[in-house]
Specification:
heterodimer; A: alpha+beta; two-stranded antiparallel sheet; B: 224 residues; alpha/beta; 4-stranded antiparallel sheet; 9 strands; 36% helix; 24% strand; globular
Chain lengths: 395, 224
């Protein structure tokens, strides 16, 4: 004799309705026990794919000696702004001596919470970044916004964005620069969406290496502290421009040797494998004044560590989840023992054994099914949200 | 000539690991008859009802309800027969605690694969509740109502499938004397309205007046 499925469902649901608190607790426990290992596995895999794609698309990086991983993160994801400085001279040497294309990266400052990335127009071609609005940078002080920056700040071409002062109490330090937004990039699903791009020279203006101010020779004598044939020293009454305009652009000038100007990294695109090998040898990490590395190889070290941690965490969660499921089994067993009188009544009445077995299994099946659905749903939601989360966290 | 509602022949039953044994040569209950079985506690009254309903199976002998020899049926068929043809009122009522009175009355239809819970069955449950005076309790759970009211719910459940045989196992055991008389009167009324035979076991002599016949189980066994 088969059981009455509708009856099992009806009686089972009536019983669960009387045990709401316990059922919710059991479902939550199971859902969490399943979700955490799934989410970690799926999440780490997605992050890995995302990171690998970006690093695989970047052949070589050059940077100052230091942490290779920090260099990769600075050049590819625009975080770790405090990497050691690479003199601009190195990138010029590489380009001149090997014919490689060198794209400078200066990812150090911020504007309204987003990284200001000083680079060249080659960067946009290299990353295949297209504009949805306006143009690329045309002159000093121009910037192009990543799609997320434009969306979240509600900015468009023609608006202005001010770089964030880095040292509030350092009067000789970095002044905020009001940049003209000339374009907005289309979404790429990468860290580029979260960046404010400008020419590397504009980044140097923010750094204080270049600046523009009122014509020194036209200042009143009272403002001149010291003057000879080549140099003039003025007091603080001289007005320093905080925005580059067509009227004042001519007054902007650099101080010092351009070869010493700082980069945080540079992307190197060698013309052929042989040149790539030569570069790797010449700028071998640990030996040279600048280090050349393949981002994918540097990331492998990170992945290996991450995967070891992931495996450990998933195993630990598996043990915890297994214990939770065992405890749940115990709860079900105790619950069924408490219901033994009820099952006896049903048997006396004439309920088929299959119906009684169905009632015994209903609670466990219901909790398992709902817990699994919730865990799977939450994992799918996480998967759907991951691309946005990765961009949001500038990965 | 009226048919036979229940017939027990050459019955021997004993519980495993217990010295107690029930032996009964012959017992016959005709259709619509109201029979009371009396006897002291522990003489086997409940066992006899359980054998009569097919909950227990005798070592030897046969139990026949109507035309069906239920003692020779396999367990699933015995359960099916019990659900369809026998109304049971247990000593402790055996109501499901998380169901309200209405669902307890309709329980045979919820657990059976063969009985269909049609609108007329629900209407019959309402009518039984009205006849037994528990309409206002239909949405209450057993824990929220009195013993006497639970007994009436158990009676409605026994009658809902329109059985030809009602077996009541000391259904007044937990009631005060006044309510005992009312409960037994209700059983007689409902069984007569349903045209069912009624067998009630009790050790209370004051409840025997409304029955067509009463037998003492120890005496019946002594004659075996």
């Amino acid at each position: 004799m088969k059981g009455n499925l509708a009856g099992i469902f009806y009686l089972g649901s009536r019983h669960l309705a009387r045990q709401r608190g316990r059922v919710v607790l059991l479902i939550g426990t199971l859902a969490l026990s399943l979700f955490l290992p799934m989410a970690i596995t799926v999440g780490v895999d997605a992050v890995e794919r995302h990171l690998r794609a970006r690093s695989a698309a970047t052949p070589l990086l050059v940077g100052a000696p230091g942490s290779q991983l920090e260099l990769v993160f600075n050049a590819l994801y625009f975080n770790k702004p405090s990497v050691p400085v690479l003199p601009f001279r190195v990138s010029r040497e590489i380009a001149r001596e090997t014919g490689a294309q060198v794209i400078p990266i200066h990812a150090k400052f911020q504007a309204r919470g987003f990284r200001v990335v000083g680079t060249s127009l080659d960067y946009f071609r290299f990353r295949k970044l297209g504009l949805v609005e306006g143009n690329l940078m045309g002159r000093l002080g121009d910037c192009v916004l990543g799609s997320s920056v434009a969306q979240r700040l509600g900015l468009k071409a023609g608006d202005r964005i001010v770089s964030t002062p880095e040292q509030m109490f350092d009067i000789a330090g970095v002044y905020p620069l009001r940049m003209r937004i000339v374009g907005v990039l289309g979404p790429s699903g990468t860290a580029d969406d979260q960046a404010v791009f400008c020419d590397v020279k504009t980044a140097w203006v923010i750094e204080g290496i270049a600046h523009g101010h009122q014509e020194a020779k036209r200042q009143p004598a009272a403002a001149v502290l010291e003057a000879d044939g080549t140099h003039i020293a003025l007091d603080s009454s001289i007005y320093e421009f905080q925005e580059v305009t067509p009227e004042n652009i001519g007054s902007f000038h650099f101080h010092g040797d351009p070869g010493d100007f700082p980069l945080t990294a540079a992307i190197v695109i060698a013309p052929d494998p042989k040149t790539e090998t030569i570069l790797m040898g010449r700028y071998q990490p640990g030996r040279a004044k600048a280090w050349m590395l393949r981002p994918g190889v540097a990331m492998e070290e990170l992945f290996a560590t991450v995967f070891r941690v992931r495996d450990f965490v998933v195993a630990a969660l598996g043990v915890i989840g297994g214990c939770a499921i065992l405890i749940m089994g115990l709860v079900f067993a105790l619950s069924n023992r408490l219901r033994s009188d009820e099952f006896g009544y049903l048997a006396n009445l004439g309920a088929p054994s299959a119906t009684i077995r169905g009632l015994v299994l209903f609670e466990a099946a219901f909790v398992t099914a709902i817990g699994a659905v919730l865990a799977t749903g939450a994992t799918l939601l996480l998967l759907g949200a991951l691309p946005r989360l990765l961009v949001h966290f500038a990965v | 000539m009226p048919g036979v509602a229940l017939q027990l022949r050459d019955l021997v039953f004993r519980y495993t690991a217990e010295r107690f044994a029930l032996r009964l040569a012959h017992l016959e209950v005709i259709a619509r008859e109201h029979l009371a079985i009396t006897g002291p506690s522990g003489c086997g009254k409940t066992t006899l009802l359980r054998l009569s309903s097919g909950i227990l199976i005798p070592e030897t002998g046969s139990v026949q309800a109507g035309e069906t020899v239920i003692s020779s049926l396999p367990d699933p068929a015995r359960r099916q027969f019990r659900l369809r043809h026998i109304g049971l009122v247990f000593q402790t009522f055996e109501l499901v605690p998380y169901l309200n009175a209405r669902d307890n009355i309709l329980l045979p239809y919820r657990v059976s694969r063969d009985l269909r819970l049609a609108p007329e069955v629900k209407a019959r449950a309402e009518a039984l509740a009205e006849q037994t005076g528990i309409t206002h309790l239909l949405d209450q759970r057993p824990a929220e109502i009195s013993q006497g009211e639970r007994q009436r719910i158990a009676l409605c459940r026994a009658l809902i499938t329109q059985p030809s045989l009602i077996l009541a196992d000391e259904p007044t055991g937990s009631l005060d004397p006044q309510n005992q008389q009312r409960a037994v009167a209700l059983l007689h009324d409902q069984a007569r309205q349903a045209g069912a035979a009624l067998i009630m076991v009790t050790h209370e002599p004051s409840l025997l007046s409304g029955f067509d016949r009463h037998i003492s189980l120890p005496e019946l066994q002594a004659n075996a």
